[in-house]
Amino acid sequence: MDRIKQSHIPHIPISGPTGTYTVRRFQPRDALGVTECLRETYGDSYPVTGLYDPRLVVEQNMSGRHLGAVAVSDRTGEVVGHCSVQCRFPWPVGECGQIMVKRGHQGRSLAVRMGQFLEQEALGIGLRCLVTYEVTSHKATQLIAHRAKFRPCGLILGAMPATLDFRNMTGAVSQRESCMVSMKYLLPPQPATVHVPAHHQDMIARIFAGLGKPVVFQNPSSVAGPGEILVRESQTWETADIVVRRFGENSPRAIRVHLQDLLARGIAEAIYLELPLDQGGGDVVCREAEEAGFFFAGLGPSSTTEGEVLILQYMKPELDLSWLRGGTPMGREILRYVTWEQERVFAKCPSDANEPDTTIVNAGGEPRSTE
User: Can you give the pTM of this predicted structure?
Assistant: First the structure.
């Protein structure tokens, strides 16, 4: 994506009971105010530690792949809110996040207004879709996203470390934080061609209907030839992703061996599996992955190509889903479905599903031995 140009919308004025506010693009002089918002919201618990350094906040906003917006009090000049869109996907979709509003300025729709401002900015640089990842230890961010017309499409369990502390909301979390995934198309989307097992089709159809995207399900089909798999590991979030770029006849075996390698090395508290929706054989590979212990998470934007993917997840059973909060009817429906699917998969998985294997797989999906 080309370097992000300066805002074509100078600001949005907002009136409130304690005065007026201006929502505008981030400027370097705002960096210290952004770090103060972060510290008031999370204390020292936010995993992306660079956001506590004003210099790194400026670098992030000057990187060419980041849209930052702030809410500023017209009376004091204080930065009281922050929101951003990160262009980290290989197709025109941005992640809307880093939403913070200081305690004394909440209840004035500043978060929604910053999001609306950034939508126009996103359209101005050619983005077609936005995605958010909303925490589930409280409902506030889910409700903000819903008001901004984002719609739930998945639930990623254990996505954030258990060290998070929402000072303005619930305080310290009691377990790893799970996130509701929501998307919003900025332009009318094209119909989706989808290869998934029959037992997920009704739920996926309901998700796409909520997103306003037509869907056409395909009949089961086999795959041949070599596949392609990418594995990513994040020390910051203590997670790993197994990303299938292309289905092949060895994909089910490759996924299983990658999973066993990650479990044996103990580097990830949660493991996510991306399966392309538009490739034949997806229904077969999904069923095989569920036999290995993965279960339904939902839909999300592909991290390697254009379009959406089916996301499955592998979690340890001790995560207590009763602590999760769904902020909308569809969010609660997805939470129920993920809970049912986790129970269904755990009930049928072999007892040795968590035992590490003795082989690992390279990024191309072909198994190789290791000592």
Answer: 0.86
